[in-house]
Amino acid sequence: MSIDRILPKLALVLILTVYGLFLAKPLNLVTADLGRHIKNGELIINGHYEVLKTNYYAYTYSDYPVLNHHWLSGVIFYAVWNMWGLAGLQLFFIFLSLAAFLIFFDIARKKSGAGLAALLTIFIMPLLLERDEIRPEAFSYLFSGVFLWLMFKYREGRVRWRTLLVLPILEIIWVNLHIYFFLGPVIIGVFILEGLILKNGKTAKNLGVLFLTVLAAAFANPNGFKGALAPMSIFKNFGYHLAENQPVWFIEKILPNPNYLIFKIVFFVLMLSFVLVLARNKRQLNIPGLIFAIGFSIAGWLAIRNFAIFSLFALPIAAANLAAIFKIKPETARWLSRTAVTTWALAVLIVLSGELKTIYPKQQSPQLGLENGNDKALDFFKENKLSGPIFNNYDIGGYLIYGLYPQEKVYPESDRRVFVDNRPEAYPADFFTKTYIPMQEDKDIWQEKSGLYKFNAIIFSYRDYTPWGQTFFRRILDDPDWTTVFADKRVIILLKNNEVNKDIIAKYGKPLSIKR
Prior knowledge:
This protein is mainly alpha-helical and about 525 residues long. It folds into 3 domains: about 1-30 and about 115-135 and about 245-365, no CATH class; about 135-235, no CATH class; about 375-510, Rossmann fold (3-Layer(aba) Sandwich). The protein is built from 21 helices and 4 strands. The chain has helices spanning about 5-25, 35-45, 70-110, 115-130, 135-155, 165-175, 185-195, 200-215, 225-230, 230-235, 250, 260-280, 285-300, 305-325, 330-355, 375-385, 395-405, 430-440, 445-455, 465-475, 500-510, and strands at about 390, 455-460, 480-485, 490-495. A 4-stranded mixed sheet has the order 1-2-4-3. It starts with a helix and ends in an 8-residue tail after the last helix. Residues about 410-415 have low confidence and may be disordered.
């Protein structure tokens, strides 16, 4: 085999190595959703189906109706975790992420050649890593890629319409994995629109039947009609604003992140590529690519959580446009492949050296499994047989669900339930605006709610940088009614000064000065 045939494959291996190394980072469950997903799967497998339709975990609103639109992801995560632990689950997520990327890269490679696709990946990689936690949305990246790959194959006449009938089956799975399942019908709809624009009636008709079938498949979920419409209703009851759902122009003023600039650069290059294609030859305009570029660009601008899905679609679209603009010749393709291999080989060395962490915050030393000491707070609570009711902040809810619930029993009266967890849609909006936030901001309201809920313990993720979180944290450390009994680099536990806790307080209680 000639060196020119080896280089494209080597470039891809190097890209996957870099991506995998970034994903192989120590797991921090304290502020992650993962713990709750695992617990969801455990409860569903054991027949506790209430978790499909109710809040379930919080003693404040355990029966509050909420659609669990990612329940199947939880079942899969739990099954993998149960067999191979957190390290095995992390490996599963890495392979899932690599598979999703491979599909989009393959589309880009066929449009422009491996060399150009590999070089473009340099710019989209940081945006991909914006969503590097183990989340159900990884399934959406994979299924989006499969849908797009098959639709392009059909468009090029390389697969028959019958082959596309696998898509409704995939949609049935997708609708139960993640709320981005609506992208399935959207992707098909874009190709229908192209057929109508180009007056290709047969294609539009065939894809129209497929579209309706996939749309019907979305109703195959535990919540039926409501589940199928969940993407349109989920934000109607959001009383808590998440950083990941904020637009670029807002969040960049609050939280510094190099990815904001990278997103703008990729967006600019993507839009410019369409301008240049139109200037060169209007007939080469990729209509589906243009629609996807506009749609996912808007999604990225409106919510930074969409950086990853934007980057995946941007890769093959930009590759196709640049190939159409520059008419890449064989000698140029060879030069691009060599440059890509050199660049990505250097990237592997830099990542392995650890030097990148000085300028890029996503860089961590490669490690599978839980971050050292990440479960110490849970162990302390259980080993000392501490009890609730617990007051906790929003971020740490999934961590407590994972480690403390159910410990003794799985009924609503269990004092191992959380006060709140990181699902805004699982609570009335005014719970956040009239209870959760005010009780942290105002001492008198805290005293009132503390008496109402009879808090016996506080478990707080003190890297909560919300204004109310910082206010509460500073105040509670000086509150004579509460004593700190545990603190590490992420979590603090305080107990109520009462008869129940006096022995633990005598043993572990002391004033602490925490460097944040």
